[in-house]
Design brief:
It is built from ten helices and ten strands. It is about 35% helix and about 25% strand. The protein has a six-stranded mixed beta sheet with strand order 6-7-8-3-9-10, sandwiched between helices. Strands 2-1-4-5 form a four-stranded antiparallel beta sheet. It has a single domain, classed as 3-Layer(aba) Sandwich (Rossmann fold). Strand 7, helix 6 and strand 8 form a beta-alpha-beta unit. By secondary structure, the protein is α/β, with parallel strands linked by helices.
Length: about 270
């Protein structure tokens, strides 16, 4: 179990005299992620959702600091332990594709993840994952600059799966994707969850969160305003702000009777 216990993230601000003052971005965040579940972390732009993920991996920039504890199975992790757990126990799937090494082809990078997991069936495992993420075999020979946005996102998700991470921290992985491809990618995250991984997924899209998450944690003004199951949200529970956003989604209005997610469920997917 991965826990954020009273986590506060502060930003350094400097006056013209050079004095440094710390201002909170997130305050007293308590969040639990269990293996086998998908938790959607929702909130508006600038709420600090991505920073919370980065704090678990000791990836915060130098002008930010974290207070509070990141715990794994009851043990408090220090900075060095968080860094050591990157890739095998904790896997970060960033919003952009800059985490892919531009000097190495996709096959080399995926093979490294496979080696990190301790698997000795590299060729077979790579072939299975490539097929599962609906990528062509020649993608292994391509470099990141040759990938479309959708392909790059799928490569990143494939990389997380091959690493055998216990917890996947996914940061806006559906950004810039059309809805059918976003649904496909999220279903693959659900497949990883069914295999025992815990998934903490940052998103601004509450409609997708309700379709693919087990639980929703909402941030509002730097604090957790809701920690609620999807079933409870649909039954009218949660804060007024979250309920307002939920009731404003297209599925509640007859003007939008049919969505791309419905097409996905029916198996009508298209590739990028």
């Amino acid at each position: 179990m991965l826990n954020f216990d009273n986590v506060t993230i502060e930003s350094a601000r400097y006056s013209w005299l050079g004095r440094k003052k710390w201002s909170p971005i997130l305050s007293d965040i308590n969040l639990t992620l269990r293996r086998g579940e998908v938790v959607a972390l929702v909130g508006g732009s600038g709420e600090g959702k991505s920073l919370l993920l980065q704090s678990a991996l000791a990836l915060l920039p130098q002008n930010l600091r974290k207070r509070g504890d990141i715990c794994l199975n009851g043990d408090v992790l220090n900075t060095q332990q968080c860094q050591k757990l990157r890739g095998n126990t904790l896997c970060y799937v960033p919003q952009g594709v800059s985490s892919l090494n531009p000097l190495l082809n996709v096959g080399t990078q995926l093979s490294r993840s496979l080696h990190l997991s301790g698997s000795h069936t590299c060729a077979l495992a790579l072939e299975q994952q490539i097929q599962h993420y609906q990528l062509q075999a020649d993608v292994l020979l391509k470099y990141p600059r040759q990938l479309s946005g959708g392909m790059a996102k799928r490569v990143l998700a494939c990389n997380a799966a091959l690493g055998g991470a216990h917890y996947i921290l996914a940061d806006e992985i559906t950004a810039w994707l059309d809805e059918p491809l976003a649904c496909q990618l999220l279903q693959q995250l659900r497949d990883l969850s069914a295999q025992g991984a815990g998934v903490l997924w940052v998103t601004h899209d509450l409609s997708l969160a309700v379709r693919f998450a087990d639980r929703i944690v909402a941030l509002n003004e730097g604090r957790v305003s809701d920690d609620i199951t999807v079933a409870d949200l649909k039954n009218g529970l949660g804060s007024p702000t979250l309920q307002k956003h939920w009731l404003a989604q297209p599925e509640h209005h007859p003007l939008f009777p049919h969505t791309a997610a419905d097409n996905f469920t029916a198996g009508k997917m298209r590739r990028v």
